From TrEMBL:
Top-level taxon in the UniProt lineage: Bacteria
Keywords: Signal
Native source species: Flavobacterium silvaticum
All residue ranges annotated as the Secretion system C-terminal sorting domain in the record: 646-712
Signal sequence residues: 1-18
Lipoprotein keyword on record: no
InterPro entries documented for this protein: Cu-Rt/internalin_Ig-like, Delta_60_rpt, Secre_tail
Designated name of the protein: T9SS type A sorting domain-containing protein
Signal in keyword set: yes
NCBIfam families: delta_60_rpt, Por_Secre_tail
């Protein structure tokens, strides 16, 4: 059975996947990995293959895609940081098969910090080809407290905010850093961010406190840095707003986007996310704090690649979110956006009386219209409480929200005062389903063996086929993927070619040569010949053959034809026992059935004539040759009447013939000229018996003394 490898085009009517927002039970224990220490999930890094890096102080570990600890990672399952800077542990970056970790040392406030980067091999050792024996010291001058790192076209970009006493401006700094020695490098377009960039000031002229956060590289090459700006009013209340700074290639002045919403008492929600079209979503709003009795307010702004509000989104570019879960308000902290535009946000449930006693972490999905997407999780959200908290002063908090590279999986990191958790949820309803690929089964002939179709596709989709295999008819089979897979149905049509046959009825004279096999048949019968048809199956040809032949001509091959003097003998006078005779003057003409001669043709004494019989199907018998002798008969008047007598006439049977000259032969003929009785004698008297003949008129031919006399006799 031949096979041809093909990939089936998408033919599907439904997708097969778990509902979005359902715990992935293949991960950890029922979709949860518990890390028994608080704050363990600082700076988690999700890898392309679904593995997760996480850091606790100076230790980096890795989870496999199923949530189990990766014992093959680093040395004995971990990388221990071996670099300067032990007062702070910051971002992780992955560079090929290397890991970059960042640390810092406090120089003393307001003196700022100094920062270090170390690059580690897969076995956990420092990559000594990097910087100075594996590390670099990052020059960020008076940057305070922390740094945020990312790659732009392979270059390291480090951002932070400068140190400030109250009454002095705080600036945002972002620099391109040398991967050789940590020094600042030229960065076209960074403009004021290289030396420090002030976001805003209060209308009263009071100073602002500007802070840097997460950074992104957009598909169009823009660098986006999340920022916060806080300032003080004349009454002593502080206000905060969040937004981002955009650095565009070749543009020297950074573009500042500060959302119009004001949060109070110094706190403000802030997160950013970018989609494939370089649109930027920024989360802002006022969280609930222990000193604030107002409800949390969450607003998401969407701006296009030019930095302008996306008017078709929410209310002129601003989308307000509100969720009440189990009677508690939800305060959202982080967001991601699906490729289809739906927004997933993570936050905590809050109470105005005790804001830090957050009972649960929440992850919800909203439509672009701001409505809760009830197809996600349970009624639009999932809720989880980090287990076993005994420290009453700490509640649940969100530590990370990640969308897998193919957007089919969601990861939520959370912690309380004792434990940290990583939660994994399905999220693949919008993802283009995988089209199962199979090897096309080649056509078979009806009745041949048809092997069972594989239940796992070439690209790893499992499922079942229906209907049952049929090796007698062409059938289209549908492959239905097993549940839990983002895969489409597909079909395969297996062609079952049929054997063919033909039937030929032939009636032929004498013999027949069958073109199907080149055989000549001379007898009637049913014959078969088996070959292969165009589809490669058997073809049975049947010949129903009838061989016919005209009845053979029989008679006297030498005949004497007697005519009276003065008359001619014709072909009609030759006597043969066949009914549809055609006469020919030569054997060649008789064999070729050419030049027949009519029955009135005068025959010649001593010549041979050829009789061929025919039948209703146009068949011919073999030629029958008759050589004729023509005798001239004298008339009856030549007999002496006194010497000849014949009686009785009419007769019932016996007839007496007398002739004084002697009788040599007597013959009896019917009206057709057929001789019925012939009798030799040598006497003056002869007797013939006509009793066996039917009633009718007959001719009695009497030969005496070389004279012939024919008498008509009536038989009663």
């Amino acid at each position: 059975m031949k096979k041809i490898t093909i990939a089936f085009s998408l033919l599907f009517s439904q997708f097969f996947f778990a509902q979005d927002g359902v715990a992935d039970t293949t991960f950890g224990t029922n979709g949860v990995v518990v890390l028994s220490d608080a704050n363990t999930t600082y700076y988690p890094e999700l890898l392309q293959d679904g593995k997760i890096l996480y850091q606790k102080n100076n230790i980096i570990k890795r989870l496999m895609a199923n949530g189990q600890a990766d014992a093959a990672f680093g040395a004995s399952g971990q990388i221990t940081l071996n670099q300067l800077g032990t007062d702070g542990y910051y971002n992780l970056l992955v560079q090929g098969d290397k890991i970059l970790a960042f640390t810092g040392d406090e120089l003393g406030w307001p003196g700022g910090w100094e920062f270090f980067g170390g690059r580690y091999n897969a076995d956990g050792t420092l990559d000594t080809t990097f910087g100075q024996n594996g590390t670099i010291e990052i020059s960020m001058d008076e940057v305070e407290g922390g740094i945020y790192t990312t790659f732009l076209n392979g270059d390291l970009i480090v951002s932070g905010n400068t140190v400030s006493n109250y009454g002095s401006y705080n600036n945002i700094v972002a620099r391109k850093i040398s991967m050789v020695d940590g020094s600042s490098m030229s960065w076209s377009g960074q403009g004021g961010l290289s030396n420090g960039f002030n976001l805003s000031s209060s209308s009263q002229g009071y100073s602002t406190y500007d802070g840097a956060g997460k950074s992104l590289i957009l598909p169009n090459g823009d660098y986006i840095l999340q920022v916060r700006a806080a300032y003080y009013s004349t009454t002593g209340f502080d206000y905060a707003r969040s937004g981002y700074v955009r650095v565009r290639p070749g543009v020297n002045t950074p573009q500042t986007t500060i959302n119009s919403f004001n949060a109070y008492y110094g706190g403000v929600n802030a997160d950013i996310y970018a989609d494939a079209d370089s649109n930027v979503y920024s989360l802002s709003g006022s969280p609930t704090s222990s000193s604030n009795t107002s409800n949390p307010t969450n607003i998401i702004y969407k701006r296009n690649s030019e930095g302008n509000l996306y008017n078709a989104f929410g209310n002129s570019g601003a989308l307000s979110l509100s969720l009440l879960a189990n009677g508690l308000k939800v305060d959202f902290k982080q967001l991601v956006v699906q490729p289809d535009g739906k927004i997933i946000v993570a936050g905590v449930t809050t109470t105005t009386q005790s804001a830090y006693q957050n009972e649960n972490v929440i992850m919800a999905r909203f439509l672009v219209t701001g409505e809760l997407d009830t197809t996600f999780g349970t009624n639009g959200y999932v809720s989880y409480s980090v287990p076993n908290p005994t420290t009453s002063s700490w509640g649940n908090s969100v530590r990370g929200l990640y969308l897998s590279p193919d957007a089919s999986t969601l990861y939520l990191m959370a912690s309380n005062g004792e434990n940290s958790v990583i939660l994994k949820y399905t999220n693949n309803s919008f993802v283009v389903p995988t089209a199962p690929e199979f090897t096309q089964v080649a056509a078979i002939c009806s009745g041949e063996t048809l092997e069972a179709l594989p239940t796992t596709s070439q690209n790893g989709v499992t499922g079942t086929w229906a209907p049952a295999l049929n090796n007698t008819a062409t059938t289209t089979y549908t492959f239905t993927p097993a549940s839990g897979q983002n895969a489409s149905t597909t079909t395969m049509t297996i062609t079952v070619n049929q054997p063919s046959s033909s039937w030929t009825d032939v009636l032929n004279c004498g013999s027949y040569m069958w073109n199907a096999n080149g055989t000549t048949y001379t007898q009637s019968g049913t014959y078969t010949n088996v070959t292969t048809n165009a589809a490669g199956c058997t073809h049975t040809a049947t010949l129903a053959l009838t061989i016919t032949a005209a009845e053979a001509v029989t008679g006297e091959s030498a005949q004497t034809i007697t005519v009276t003097a003065g008359n001619d003998a014709t072909i009609a006078a030759i006597v043969v026992n066949a009914t549809d005779v055609i006469w020919y003057a030569s054997e060649a003409d008789a064999l070729a059935h050419e030049n027949p001669i009519p029955t009135e043709t005068v025959i010649t004494d001593g010549n041979t004539y050829y009789a061929v019989n025919t039948n209703d199907w146009g068949c011919f018998s073999s030629p029958f040759a008759v050589t004729v002798t023509v005798e001239v008969e004298l008339s009856n008047s030549d007999f002496d009447a006194s010497d000849f007598s014949l009686y009785p006439n009419p007769t019932n049977g016996l007839v007496v013939i007398k002739n004084t000259r002697g009788i040599s032969s007597v013959a009896v003929f019917n009206l057709l000229g057929q001789q019925l009785i012939s009798q030799k004698t040598d006497a003056t008297e002869a007797m013939i018996d006509l009793s066996a003949l039917n009633s009718g008129t007959y001719f009695v031919k009497v030969t005496a003394d070389n004279q012939i006399r024919t008498v008509k006799v009536l038989k009663k």
